[in-house]
Structure to design on (184 residues):
């Protein structure tokens, strides 16, 4: 089996955060990283011990030919192609996670909270952008066969209508507007 592509460091780190330790189930993981050759490809290797139980964990991802560097004013997980690491249900779950406790109005919040919620909303926007990459050209929704993870299939099964392109675009727009309100 060939290595999966991590389109950006942000995508690789998010993927690792969503993978619980096989021994204790903890999701906290602070790996060391290196660039290696693996299966004939340039790859990123992340490894380290689970801070909870000490079990060694390791992930190796193919590096894209065209590197996407982080931008100071935007969260971005990948280029135009859909993720190989996370399916559309995973991405929608991430967007939900980042917006779950975000207030609708930044008024009255301390600057640090406004900035934190703004970054969370910007991350949610990027996650919704990732879901939209799974909508085939000319289609109006993410097809059921795009879901390959257990979490992703559960999210889809709970409410498949959330994966219609028009609804996703409306949510993306709303989150983007909210983020701008928090970040000013």
């Amino acid at each position: 089996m060939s290595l999966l592509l991590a389109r950006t460091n942000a995508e690789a780190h998010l993927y690792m955060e969503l993978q619980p330790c096989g021994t204790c189930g903890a999701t906290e993981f602070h790996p060391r990283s290196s660039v290696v050759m693996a299966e004939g490809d340039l790859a990123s290797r992340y490894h380290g011990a689970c801070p909870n139980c000490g079990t060694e964990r390791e992930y190796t991802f193919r590096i894209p030919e065209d590197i996407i560097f982080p931008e100071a004013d935007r969260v971005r997980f990948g280029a135009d192609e859909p993720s190989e690491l996370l399916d559309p249900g995973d991405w929608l779950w991430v967007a939900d996670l980042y917006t779950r406790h975000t207030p609708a109005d930044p008024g009255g919040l301390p600057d640090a909270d406004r900035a934190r919620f703004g970054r969370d909303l910007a991350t949610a926007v990027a996650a919704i952008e990732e879901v939209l990459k799974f909508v085939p050209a000319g289609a109006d929704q993410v097809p059921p066969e795009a879901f390959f993870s257990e979490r992703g299939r559960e999210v889809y099964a709970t409410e498949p209508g959330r994966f219609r392109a028009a609804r996703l675009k409306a949510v993306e727009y709303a989150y983007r507007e909210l983020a701008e309100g928090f970040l000013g």
User: Anything to note?
Assistant: The chain has two domains: 9-62, 88-183. The mean pLDDT is 95. Residues 111-132 form the longest helix (22 residues).
